[in-house]
Amino acid sequence: MGLVGTLNGGPHMTKHDAPLPIRVIVAGAAGRMGQEVVRAVLAQPDLQLVACFDRVYGPEVVPPASGARMASSLAELEGVEADVWVDFTVPAFVKTGVSWALEHGMVPLVGATGMGPEDRAELAALAERTGRGCLIAPNFALGAVLLMKFAAEAARYFPAAEIIELHHERKVDAPSGTARLTADRMSAVRHEVGLPSEPLEAGEEAIAGVRGGACGGIRVHSVRLPGLLAHQEVLLGGTGELLTLRHDSLSRESFMPGVVLAIRKASSIRGLIVGLENLL
Ligand code: NAD
């Protein structure tokens, strides 16, 4: 006989061994990313949107026929059974929501950026204590994940590198989570091969901040402009040569294949992991 229960406890099956849909709550459901996730989940027959969570709703976040509960406080979510919590809220709230989801037996998939190392350490400890998995993915776009991988590989061979990340003007955090993670991955490789942990010093700053901010051995420059969505360039300088890696997310749909993939693999996550590449 098959099992019925949460994904965390094992296979999520009916008594006839047909898989049940994976039950999803979207947090930040009324936001730009949240709405995209709601559409993506509703479009997949093996996923079930059981609830939306946001502090404010505009008109028509979810088609009424979906049957999903619309909650604007965590208290209103009590009693909702779900397997996965997809979080695209804001840096100020994300830790509260993810902690709540872990304590309620869900696997949080965190797209919201801006959490620092201390928040991550706290969530890792909570994931450990509750025996749940948790994914923090600063970028769900497959191309951006590949760019990070290629940048880390290239960091081994180039003495200096800088990152330029470019986003729309309403992004609340800087640098982007993707830039931080890229810089962390590149710094780890630089450390491994004995490259300096400080960025290349070149010239005085006549204007404060003009050389960007240091993230390990890598300088990061954050551009915010209307018209942009999410873009990143990694420039690696060598002797008489420059390697430029660039990724552009041209629409929010670009993140959805990664989000859907992570929802489907959520039950296999153990403890807290950072980066979608861990599931590829
Ligand atoms: P947004 O402002 O459009 O959406 C955020 C939503 O969260 C809003 O609807 C807001 O009402 C809600 N919210 C804020 N505080 C809340 C609270 N206390 N309780 C409940 N809901 C609350 O922002 P966005 O552009 O959709 O981006 C959301 C996050 O996703 C940002 O951190 C952004 O950097 C990140 N992001 C990640 C990826 C990725 O691939 N991981 C891609 C794009 C954006």
How would you classify the helix and strand content by structural class? alpha/beta
**How many separate domains?**
2
What's the overall average pLDDT, rounded? Answer: 90
- What is the CATH class name of the largest domain? Alpha Beta
What kind of oligomer do you see?
single chain
Provide the succession of SSEs. Answer: EHEEEHEHEHEHEEEEHE
The description of the largest β-sheet is: 7 strands, parallel
- Please mark out the parts with pLDDT under 50 across 5 or more consecutive residues, or reply none: 1-11
Ends distance: 31 Å
**CATH fold call of the largest domain:** Rossmann fold
Ligand kinds = nicotinamide-adenine-dinucleotide
What is the percent of helical residues? 25-40%
**Proportion of residues in β-strands:** 15-25%
Count up the helices. 6
User: Biggest sheet: strands side by side, in what order?
Assistant: 3-2-1-4-5-6-12
Reported CATH architecture of the largest domain? 3-Layer(aba) Sandwich
**Rg, please?**
20 Å
**CATH 4th-level superfamily of the largest domain:** NAD(P)-binding Rossmann-like Domain
